[in-house]
Design brief:
Elements: E1 8-11, H1 17-28, E2 32-37, H2 40-43, E3 52-56, H3 62-72, E4 77-80, H4 95-123, E5 126-131, H5 145-165, E6 170-177, H6 183-191, H7 195-204, H8 214-226, E7 234-237
Parallel strand pairs: 1-2, 1-4, 2-3, 4-5, 5-6, 6-7
Helix pairs in contact: 1-8, 3-4, 4-5, 6-7
The chain binds nicotinamide-adenine-dinucleotide.
Length: 243
């Protein structure tokens, strides 16, 4: 089915990487996409694309999220893309870094879901797709203590929302990617000093011998929004990492 056709999608972190590809994929499937990000310059690369409206939205700000949802009106699909990778072990973590990751990786999704759910319920249903990761509860990854902890929580909140609202027509699923080519991954590779060595190490985690593309993840996001008999699931899309 192409359930998303003609429906309205609110997407976060659409400026680059997986979020940008996902906004384009929903638009290509015939949805009306409200593509949001804090980075307006990155967002502007989507302006003029058919079926896409762009708008600045900081998912750390509850009032901004509520105001955006209020002004958009009916929202059928929520794509929660925002997330941040923190590197290091539990011994290297600073409490402020953990608090920030809780805010951006977990509470951002709580804010958007709380804002859109009443409208979805009134309309008879809706689909929520959350960006998690294989790093977390699917598999433990070295030097990803903060990240893995928050992404495990994304899977937990996904299942909790799915369980609470399954009878009201709400579907809520999570995507768990392996390593995907994106601007922030590029930054992490550069930050390690030896770019080629860092890239080779990321590729070595992927049994398929390559990184995933944002478009491959975007396809799954659209699929999950369309998957009218699927809820509460965490879908791995990881190049064989967790075989
Ligand atoms: P990215 O990290 O390159 O881009 C993230 C986007 O989020 C940026 O455009 C940024 O401006 C936006 N953003 C940051 N703070 C924000 C805020 N407060 N409000 C609104 N937007 C904000 O993108 P990516 O690497 O494709 O990652 C996208 C999602 O996928 C994240 O949740 C990430 O954790 C998850 N993920 C990525 C990978 C990967 O390998 N790239 C793997 C697994 C999961």
């Amino acid at each position: 089915t192409n359930w998303v056709e003609g429906r309205t999608v609110l997407a976060t972190a659409s400026g680059q990487g997986i979020g940008r590809a996902t906004a384009l994929a929903f638009a290509a499937a015939g949805a009306r996409v409200i593509a949001t990000d804090i980075n307006e310059e990155a967002l502007s690369s989507l302006s003029g694309e058919a079926n896409i409206e762009t708008r600045r939205l900081d998912v750390l700000k509850d009032e901004e999220v509520k105001a955006a949802v209020q002004s958009i009106g009916r929202i059928d699909v929520l794509f929660n893309g925002a997330g941040f990778v923190h590197g290091g072990t539990i011994l290297e973590m600073k409490d402020e870094e953990f608090d920030f990751a809780i805010d951006l990786n977990i509470r951002s999704m709580i804010r958007t879901i709380r804002a859109v759910l009443p409208g979805m319920i009134d309309a008879g249903g809706g689909a929520i797709v959350n960006m998690a990761s294989v790093a977390g509860s699917v598999t433990g990854v070295p030097n990803r203590f903060v990240y893995g902890t928050t992404k495990a929580a994304v899977i937990g909140l996904t299942k909790a929302v799915a369980a609470d609202f399954v009878a009201r027509g709400i579907r809520c699923n999570a995507i768990c990617p392996g390593t995907v080519e994106s601007p922030s991954l590029q930054e992490r590779m550069r930050a390690q000093g030896d770019y080629e060595k860092a890239r080779a190490a990321f590729i070595a985690r992927q049994p398929m011998g390559r990184l995933g593309t944002p478009e491959e993840i975007a396809d799954l996001a659209v699929h999950l929004a369309n998957a009218t008999y699927t809820t509460g699931q965490a879908y791995s899309i990881d190049g064989g990492w967790t075989i």
